Amino acid sequence: MNVYTRVRSLAGMNAHPALLDHIVLATPDLEATVADFARRTGVHPVPGGAHPDRGTRNYLVSLGGSGYLEIIGPDADQPEPPRPRPFGIDRLTGPRTVTWAISPPDLDKAVADAHAVGYDPGPVSPMSRRRPDGTLLTWRLTSADTAHPSGLVPFLIDWTGSAHPTEAALPRTPLLDLSARTPDPDGVRALVLALGTALPLDTGPLRLSFTVDTPRGPVTFT
Predict the structure, then answer these.
(1) What single DSSP character describes residue 94?
(2) Residues contacting residue 159 through CB under 8 Å, at least 6 positions apart
(3) For residues 158 and 147, what is the distance between their CA atoms, to the nearest angstrom?
(4) Are the C-beta atoms of residues 75 and 55 closer than 8 Å to each other?
(5) d(CA 222, CA 213)
(6) Cβ 46 vs Cβ 70: under 8 Å
(7) Average pLDDT of the chain?
(8) Is 131 exposed, middle or buried (0-12, 13-18, 19+ CB in 10 A)?
(9) Which SUPFAM superfamilies does the record associate with it (predicted)?
């Protein structure tokens, strides 16, 4: 069995961490990163929408089920935002998988449970954007900017009864793997488990990576 066949055989297993909502691939050059994703995978991400006053917009790809990939970067149609763009975009020199998000059944309870074990995921804030078809999406989330600095502990999101991004027709690259390396796997693992999910962790220099199944075979992004 070659590597490609072996990896494809794993696709029948649940590669999605519990409660996965989306993975964030941030970039300082959105159009170039979207084009690179399409070149490597044969799948073209579709526009998601702009984030008003944050200076960003995104493109989306389904990861199967209710999970999706968000490719996010500067929005040339917006003026410079009053504060730094999220996910450290202004400091990036190239695209990077920066973090991931989960959608717990009760966001406020999940925040309280995290506090109970000594982890503060940050304040909960409302956000919104419009899809290209005009549909307004609304959600509440804990900011990735105030989450664990490694990016390996997911931030939390609640779609507040709004349509979910995966309810639109998105191109699909099924998720085969989401994993990470960190100098402190035990410390990070405890926080991830406290949020009701899990992430395979190895010891090593900090890295978050994911692999998707595509028409051109498995492709990994870091």
Answers:
(1) S
(2) 103, 137, 138, 139
(3) 16
(4) yes
(5) 15
(6) no
(7) 92
(8) middle
(9) Glyoxalase/Bleomycin resistance protein/Dihydroxybiphenyl dioxygenase (SSF54593)
Q: Rounded to an integer, what distance in angstroms lies between the CA atom of residue 145 and that of residue 87? A: 6
Token readout for 13 is 């297993």
Tokens, residue 142 = 């804990």
| Tens-place pLDDT, residues 32-54 | 999 999 999 999 999 999 999 99
- Kindly report the backbone phi and psi dihedral angles of residue 55, in degrees, each rounded to the nearest multiple of 5, phi listed first: 75, 20
For residue 63, give the nearest of 177, 142, 158, 151 by alpha carbon: 177
Which residue type does 12 have? G
Q: Which tokens go with 56?
A: 């960003």
Taking a C-beta distance cutoff of 8 angstroms, is the pair 166, 87 a contact? Answer: no
**Tokens standing for 108?**
């406020």
pLDDT at 8 over 80: no
Burial group, residue 5, by CB count within 10 angstroms (0-12, 13-18, 19+): exposed
Its pTM stands at 0.92
Residue 14 is predicted with a pLDDT of: 59
